[in-house]
Design a protein that fits this description.
The chain is α/β, with parallel strands linked by helices and 479 residues long. 51% of the residues lie in helices and 14% in strands. The structure holds adenosine-5'-triphosphate. It comes from Mastacembelus armatus.
Length: 479
């Protein structure tokens, strides 16, 4: 493995890297950096925590230092927290340049963002939705001269999941110059390769880390098979044992919904665990504040939805617990990738119910690794089971008495309005769809029942016939 200078990086950047403890390039940096410096489009697929961010930040900074102007580079990120983290890397590594960056994400003041954009920052780091809003509503900035477009977590930006970025991406791509360098990075690029290739049109240099497994070797991947009702008791027991044994460990717990995130946070606090949460129903300022407190180890436990699954770099995080088994292997890979980063060790524990076993199998198939069972003293778990379940129920009741569900409904309506839809019409449409769906279901059920009845009738007839035959034979034998 060479050093950064031999890859063509300028001395000032090599020095800057050293100050951050980045001395030798990781494979993704070693391979992608020269191609980007040569002016090629690039698609880099490397495991979580392998230094993909610096693989695009460093060459952009080098090119910027040769011809500084704004807006030089646009980076898109699927989440707001990740956008801040990327901007920070640019700021730290680009300090000697006097780099001016600007972060454009939802949940923050739009007017001050518009002002910052009009000041022509060198680098804009944005989430697609908010940037598209600015493009639609303002003509005080131009992106027609950008040299670099970067899609971090590129596969997420292009997939049509619950947050669909494709329309916003169309708006953004519409104002960018065709002549630019496009860089796409993720730990899970391969599923969306075709869509990505249409964005990086300029015969992209494609690099993927060669490895049989898709998760890092330093990660000890475990599971616990548990009935749904005992899950929380296992969780409390696990946290208790980790905190008893290790003062300095931080834990991220992933769960499937904002409500569950909130309930688990309340519940773990009842057990005096220093817990904080991160999910999309929180105010943005609170989200940033909570993440900062977790990063600074003020709180040792972060309970999050998948909004924290990708990209976040928290070196102190030693353990990831999946309170629910992720439905997609890709999500699993990103979630457990929040630990065991940059060569450090880490543990992931997935709580698996009997209904999730098939999900574990498809995860294992994708990552080419078998999860090992995590040994637990079941006696200890059973001892706290009732206490934990009663506490959870109390927390649920407490949450129900707040306006959490109401807020969720209001947020949904706000989102629909922002998408240019009428919330009442949407609700009507949804109800009608639901009605049609349940009618179809009922119809299907009736058909099934009819088939079943017919089958049973036929079976009965057959049995009767057989009985009669037997009887006949017996009578014949007697005569
Ligand atoms: N060459 C290097 N040597 C040592 N540490 C490095 C090097 N490059 C990056 N790092 C550090 O490794 C950590 C992980 O890097 P980064 O966040 O870029 O990972 P990533 O590949 O983008 O992961 P993910 O897929 O989860 O987003 C960071 O703390 C970063 O500072």
């Amino acid at each position: 493995m060479g050093d950064f200078s031999s890859l063509g990086l300028s001395d000032w950047l090599v020095k800057q890297c050293k100050q951050l403890g980045i001395n030798r390039p990781t494979p993704v940096q070693e391979n992608c950096l020269p191609a980007i410096l040569e002016g090629r489009d690039c698609m880099g697929c490397a495991k979580t925590g392998s230094g993909k961010t610096a693989a695009f930040v460093l060459p952009v900074l080098q090119k910027l230092s040769e011809d500084p102007y704004g807006i030089f580079c646009l980076v898109l990120s699927p989440t707001r927290e990740l956008a801040y983290q990327i901007a920070e890397q640019f700021r730290v590594l680009g300090k000697p340049l006097g780099l001016r960056d600007c972060i454009i994400v939802g949940g923050m003041d739009m007017v001050s963002q518009a002002l910052e954009l009009s000041n022509q920052p060198h680098v804009v780091v944005a989430t697609p939705g908010r940037l598209a809003d600015h493009i639609r509503s303002s003509n005080t900035f131009s992106m027609s001269k950008i040299k670099f477009l970067i899609l971090d977590e590129a596969d997420r930006l292009l997939e049509q999941g619950c947050t669909d970025f494709t329309k916003d991406l169309e708006v953004i791509l519409g104002v960018l110059p065709a002549k630019r360098q496009t860089l796409l990075f993720s730990a899970t690029l391969t599923d969306t390769l075709q869509e990505l290739k249409s964005i990086a049109m300029n015969k992209p240099f494609f690099w993927e880390s060669m490895s049989e497994t898709r998760t890092v070797e330093e990660l000890d991947q475990r599971y616990i098979l548990t009935p749904e009702k005992v899950k929380d008791a296992y969780l409390v027991h696990l946290i208790q044992t980790f905190t008893d044994k290790h003062d300095d460990w931080s834990i991220i717990i992933f769960t499937n919904t904002c409500k569950n995130c909130q309930i688990l946070t309340m519940m773990l606090r009842e057990f005096n665990f220093p817990t904080i949460s991160l999910h999309s129903m929180m105010k943005q300022k609170q989200r940033f504040a909570n993440l900062a407190k977790f990063k600074a180890s003020v709180y040792k436990i972060l309970i999050a939805t998948d909004v924290a699954a990708r990209g976040l770099d928290i070196p102190t995080c030693q353990v990831v617990i999946n309170h629910n088994t992720p439905g997609l292997p890709k999500i699993y890979i990103h979630r457990v990738g929040r630990t065991a980063r940059a060569g450090r060790n880490g543990v992931s524990i997935t709580l698996v119910t009997q209904y999730d076993i098939h999900l574990v199998h498809s995860i294992e198939e994708q990552i080419q690794t078998k999860l090992k069972e995590y040994p637990v003293e079941e006696k200890e778990v059973l001892k706290i089971l009732t206490h934990v379940n009663v506490t959870r129920r109390e927390c649920e009741i407490k949450l129900e008495s707040t306006d959490f569900d109401e807020k969720k409904e209001i947020n949904k309506r706000k989102q629909l309005i922002l998408e240019g839809k009428d919330p009442d019409l949407e609700a009507k449409r949804k109800a009608e769809l639901e009605k049609i769906r349940s009618q179809k279901k009922l119809f299907k059920q009736k058909i099934q029942e009819n088939i079943q009845r017919q089958k049973q009738g036929q079976l009965k007839k057959k049995l009767m016939k057989r009985k009669q035959m037997k009887k006949k034979k017996a009578e014949q034998a007697l005569t």
